[in-house]
Amino acid sequence: MSVRELVVLGTASQVPTRHRNHNGYLLRWDGRGILFDPGEGTQRQMLRAGVAAHDLDRICVTHFHGDHSLGLAGVIQRINLDQVPHPVTAHYPASGRHFFERLRYATAYRETVRLVESPVTADGPLATTGDFTLEARRLSHPVESYGYRIVEPDGRRILPAKLAEHGIKGPDVGLIQREGSLNGVTLDEVSEIRRGQRFAFVMDTRLCDGVHALAEGADMLVIESTFLDEDVRLATDHGHLTAGQAAAVARDAGVRHLVLTHFSQRYSDPAAFERQAREAGFDGELSIAQDLMRVPVPKRT
């Protein structure tokens, strides 16, 4: 059974609180698992959320500030301790390779798993599987930072009324799907394009072209909203977004489900982020992330 959902492991920015762990987000995409920004404590949060090391296929780090990467040491050692049977690929900004290496070999342990390092050097595709293409876009932060985007290939949706119109039924339905035509009838005549799903992950950044490119047409956008709108000057100075800015990006990009996260410890009322997102004009599905929350990726339209 295919499952596409976001498992939120942590939602705090810079400083964890009693209720918010440092960052950590697992995207389940059918049989694959992509771990984004494992901050300190991610290994324990995985345990609490029912996420196993065997679930991880890729690790994507946006940048090397501690709240987004200090959990790498524990996660990498855990996949080796549990002897994950498949390779795990790690993507991270190439300029931070020395940080990745330090975290990877922070202490002594026995390596049992093939960890493939695939540093990000520029905007564009990073990997293509049969299920999706993983892309990266440069963001605007005091240190080099990239956001990530997953794009599923478009498919086709069979139209029963068109099949009936052309007298196609039974095994011939599968045949026209495989061959592309049958007795002069093309697949295009009895089907329509089914748009592939899109998922975007945007962490520490000011507004920039990369934010908009990542968000465009996303079925789910996970995006930082460290500050509330009244602190927009602080946000800009420190390379972050406000709730209203993040929501406006989602509104203009046609995002279906917006997940706001990465909250400053200075705010105690999560409802304020929701209120400002709605005031910015975003009217789609909206989640204010909480630790251990599970958020389904919207079904295909």
Q: Number of helical segments?
A: 10
The average pLDDT value, as a whole number, equals: 96
Q: Give the termini separation.
A: 19 Å
| Helix content percent band | 25-40%
What overall geometry do the principal axes of the alpha carbons give?
globular
Q: What structural category do the secondary elements indicate? A: alpha/beta
Spatial order of the strands forming the largest sheet: 6-5-4-3-2-1-18
Strand content: 25-35%
The description of the largest β-sheet is: 7 strands, mixed
Please give the radius of gyration in angstroms.
21 Å
Pick out the low-confidence regions: none
What is the number of strand segments?
Answer: 18
Order of helices and strands: EEEHEHHEHEEEEEHHEEEEHEHHEHEE
Structure description:
- A hairpin with a 2-residue loop joins strand 11 (181-182) and strand 12.
- By secondary structure, this protein is α/β, with parallel strands linked by helices.
- Helix content is 26%, strand content 26%.
- Helix 9 (243-253) crosses helix 10 (271-279).
- The chain has a seven-stranded mixed sheet. The chain has a seven-stranded mixed sheet with strand order 7-8-9-14-15-16-17. A two-stranded antiparallel sheet has the order 10-13.
- The chain is built from ten helices and 18 strands.
- The model has no long low-confidence stretch (mean pLDDT 96).
- The chain is globular and about 65 Å long.
